[in-house]
Amino acid sequence: MTPDPVALFALVILLLPIAYLLLAAPAFLLVKLDIPAVAQLLRGMFNVYFVMLSIAGVIAAVAFATEGRIACVIGIGLIAAFAFWARGWFLQEMDAQIRHQGDADAARRLRRLHWGGMVGNAIQLVAIMSAIPYIAPA
């Protein structure tokens, strides 16, 4: 079986926002999140991540739909839908913690959201990377 260039292109497009968060998010582990500018920057990073993942997911789903791979369309469509839904919830939770900036518990909850976002991103990365041999066989 020959590699499918459309499938490979779609996977690369989908991996771009995941790689972005994978590289950018750990830097925030080195700073305190009770600094308002840092908390806003973290919020902005996650906002961009969710928007990019939604757009990339739609592009990848359309690419797989043109190839007639319905199972891949459903899987990637679920990733895009999750990113679209999670953006609203995640940013709302972050805003709630940022509003209570002086509170030590708010900084702890913000850090927990940060870790949760990184873990969710890692899970998506593992799922996509483990699907590559099935989607684009060599």
Q: What are the main properties of this structure?
A:
138 residues; mainly alpha; elongated
Indicate the topology.
Layout lengths: L4 H20 L11 H32 L2 H30 L4 H32 L3
Describe the structure.
With 138 residues, the chain is an all-alpha fold. The protein has one domain (5-129). It has four helices and no strands. It has helices at residues 5-24, 36-67, 70-99, 104-135. The protein is elongated, with a radius of gyration of 17 Å. The termini are close together. The model has no long low-confidence stretch (mean pLDDT 89).
Number of strands: 0
Biggest β-sheet description: none
H/E element sequence: HHHH
Work out the helix count.
4
**C-alpha-based Rg, rounded:** 17 Å
Query: Alpha-carbon distance between the termini?
Result: 7 Å
Low-confidence stretches: none
Portion of residues within helices: over 70%
Tell me the β content.
under 5%
The oligomeric state of the chains shown is single chain
Structural class: mainly alpha
Total domain modules? 1
The shape, in one word, is elongated
Mean pLDDT rating: 89
Short description:
By secondary structure, the chain is an all-alpha fold.
